[in-house]
Amino acid sequence: MSSLTRPGGRTARVRDAVLRATGDLLAESGFAALDLAEVARHAGVGRTTVYRRWGTPTGLIADVLVAMADESVPRARTGSIADDLRANARLVRSTLADVRQGRLFKAVVVAGACDDRAADALHGFYAARIDEWAPCVDEAIGRGQLPDGTDARQVIAAVSAPLYYALLQSGQPLTEALADQAAGAALAAAQAGAFAAR
């Protein structure tokens, strides 16, 4: 575990303040306007601290995504694949529909399109969230609710994909009904064997 992620102490307090400031500035002004000196000012820490520990705007974004993955809500364990997928979709929806979080996600997606380090961090964030939720699909296979060979990671990705599309492309309102529809569509496809190994 690096000094940046060690719980407790001044290092952790500085990291929390800097990442909060980074998230606020990303949500407010986007990736193109992210400036390390401005982050330091908003966080109430020295500029040299930010430059030394994070180095670049993409270094900050990478650490923001690590923190977001670490702090994400654990998956549901309802015993029903339909309820688990619905819970996953509603969690994604509530995050993306939040004014600050929605803008933050847009900013980090833009960063990922511009910079390989930010892209790697974004991929790591999504992988961590899928890893958290994929066991509900594996458990459903074990209960006979889904076909053998169903790719759990693909099912979870299919749940959230329409919600990210709405946020980033279509502008469709991120309603709870849309979340439930996304979960239902992913479940129906999984039950039909669409995500089973051929």
Automatic annotation (TrEMBL):
A Pfam family of this chain: TetR_C_11
The cross-references to InterPro entries, in alphabetical order and at most eight, read: Homeodomain-like_sf (IPR009057), HTH-type_TetR-like_transc_reg (IPR050109), HTH_TetR (IPR001647), Tet_transcr_reg_TetR-rel_C_sf (IPR036271), TetR_C (IPR011075)
Keywords, in A-Z order:
DNA-binding, Transcription, Transcription regulation
UniProt KW Isomerase keyword? no
One Gene Ontology molecular-function label: DNA-binding transcription factor activity
The residues that make up the annotated DNA-binding region are 35-54
**Domain HTH tetR-type, chain residue ranges per copy:** 12-72
Q: Is Transmembrane one of the keywords UniProt gives this record?
A: no
Full protein name:
TetR/AcrR family transcriptional regulator
Q: Which organism is it from?
A: Solicola gregarius
